[in-house]
Amino acid sequence: MIHIKYFFGNVYMAAVLGIAATLFILKDLQFVFGGSPPVLIFLVVIAFAAWHGGLKAGFLTTVLSVAASAYFLVEPYGSFYIAKSSEILRIVLLFSVGAICSMIIARLYNQEKRALLKIMEREEQLKQEIAERNRTIAERNLYLLLAKSSTEFIGMCDTEGVPFFINDAGLSLVGLDSFEQGLKTPVKEFFFPEDQALILDEFFPQVLQNSRGEIEIRFRHFKTGEALWMIYNVFALKDLNDNIVGLGTVSTNITERKQAEATLREIQSDLNRAQAVAHIGSWRMNVCNNILEWSDENFRIFGVPKDTPLTYESFLGKVHPADRILVDTAWKQALTGKHYDVEHRIVVGKEIKWVRELAELEFDEHGSVLGGFGTTEDITDIKSSQEALQQERALLSQVIDAVPSMIFVKDSEGRFLLGNQALAACYGTNPESLLGSTDKDFNPNVDEVIHFSQDDLNVLNSCLPKHIPEEKVTHADGSVHWYSTVKIPLIDSDNNCNKLLGVATDITVRKRAEEELRQADRRKDQFLAMLAHELRNPLAPIRNAVRMLKIQEA
How confident is the model at residue 7 (pLDDT cuts 50, 70, 90)? Predict the structure, then answer.
């Protein structure tokens, strides 16, 4: 069927068949027309061929029609020789009319074909335009739907600043009740008066020049008057000729972010003030990139200008040369997971400071070190105070050690918290060995130890001082000495009494002097008694003397 359709659809084959059919008809009807059949009937086939095949097909059909007429329809038949001039005229007429008809019909055919092509092209163009318009309408509807459903502020205005679109989120954001109200509000009214000059005179001209622009600016809430911080992203709207016809915006509300930034700045400012007051700075070390970041206070402590780029090596260069190995070793150990807590000196100009550094290291899931966060405390004043305190303690120790009385401090368990040289000598030890020990660790006399402990408890429980005029203390060498002791309770800031101060003065010499005085008094009394007796009996000495003389003479 395809081959048959192609065969009959071919203009040339159709022309040949048409010529053959016409020739057959004229041959059969030759008796009707006599010896001169109407060869102009071939014009039908010629016209068909010229209409459907153009000038070339028309000329070819004309030639074939002339040849067929001369051969089959003109005497002598079966030959192209034409004897009669009238027949030659008919054949020439057929050729001429056929050629003219072919040219005319071909021209009409070409015009129709061109017109049809134009119609088809226009139809296709119209289809494309319709499709493009439908696509544009669909995209416009989609964009409108997206704009209306977006939570961002989306708006458009002409070059005069008169809005022609604001989405629902934008209207709600600035406190406008309706779309119509939004269209009646000039763009400049969306901003605070003090910001309008910036927008109209600087920002919008920049957008018109560069086709887009972005700025952080405040929108004004029309009902409450509060400021709404926005990222105001504006772009130019252009027509098909690339002419700017208006401005559009997709703006983001960053009020919460601005508030968070303000809060963060306040916190950072408070932190900086707190660090400055406490003399404690903070730092972060990026080990992978060797980047060291310092807080403001850290820069102040080290005497380095703020925002100076820092590395581990630049930090180590600020450390006192005598302490660099200590610090470097501590940091390298911290990188392996050990705790970083080091006190060292730093050189700030001509001044030497003491700092204490603490750090926590950060590791990834594979255990590789990422960095560390730490603090730097300026302990220069603390170190100076410690040195002054140590000097004062040394001076106090010299003072109390120079005192011949025993001076001590005990806690509620009877442990020595302080003891001078006199107490240590009494117990045959040194002041350092006394600390944490009790009387029973040195005194072999149990009764004395119990007596001391009972007196201590009485003072601590009553919170009242106690004077013990006389008490015996057995020394480490076994000798017994007499002491006059005062025990005073020490009350702390919480009003607790759990320590006491004792001062024991050796009165052994005084006790011995008193004993000798008592013996001297007793001998005096005996002498006076004897003297009184002699005075009451005065002849007794004479008799005794005579008796002694007689004995000597004999």
Answer: very low
Q: Which amino acid is at 271?
A: L
Here the tokens at position 236 are: 């130019």
Degrees, nearest 5: CA angle 25-30-32 = 105
Strands (E), 159-203: 163-166
Residues 6 or more apart whose CB falls under 8 angstroms from that of 540 comprise 534
Distance CA 40, CA 193 (A): 95
The three-state secondary structure class of 351 is: strand
Per-residue model confidence as pLDDT tens digits over 371-389: 889 999 999 988 888 888 8
Q: With 0-12 CB in 10 A as exposed, 13-18 as middle and 19+ as buried, what is 190?
A: buried
Whole-Å CA distances, 403 to 421, 429, 510: 8, 17, 18
Sign of CA dihedral 306, 311, 312, 316: negative
Q: Are 489 and 458 in contact (CB under 8 A)?
A: no
Out of 125-134, 197-206, 505-514, 537-546, the most confident range is 197-206
Of 20, 93, 12, nearest in space to 58 by CA: 12
DSSP 36: -
Q: What is the pTM of this model?
A: 0.45
* Average pLDDT score over the chain: 85
CB 342 within 8 A of CB 326: yes
The pLDDT confidence band at residue 2, using thresholds 50, 70 and 90, is: very low
Half-sphere exposure of 20 (CA within 13 A, CB side): 6
480, 478, 498: which is closest to 489 by C-alpha?
498
CA torsion angle 389 394 398 401 (round to 10): 90
Q: In 3D, which of 469, 454, 459, 457 has the Cα closest to residue 490?
A: 459
Mean pLDDT of 446-450: 92
The arithmetic mean of pLDDT across residues 510-526, rounded, is 77
**Partners of 490 in beta bridges:** 499
String of DSSP letters for 61-96: HHHHHHHHIIIIISSSTTSS----HHHHHHHHHHHH
pLDDT for position 508: 86
What is the per-residue pLDDT for 32?
A: 56
Conformation bin of residue 103: beta by default, left when phi > 0, alpha when psi is -120 to 50 = alpha
Spatial separation of the C-alpha atoms in residues 521 and 529, rounded to whole Å: 12
Bigger pLDDT: 349 vs 270: 349
- Report the relative pairing of strands 291-294 and 280-286 from DSSP bridges: antiparallel
CB–CB of 455/436 below 8 Å? no
Calpha distance 382→394 (Å, rounded): 18
Which SS3 state, helix, strand or coil, does residue 463 take? coil
Confidence of residue 489 (pLDDT cuts 50, 70, 90): very high
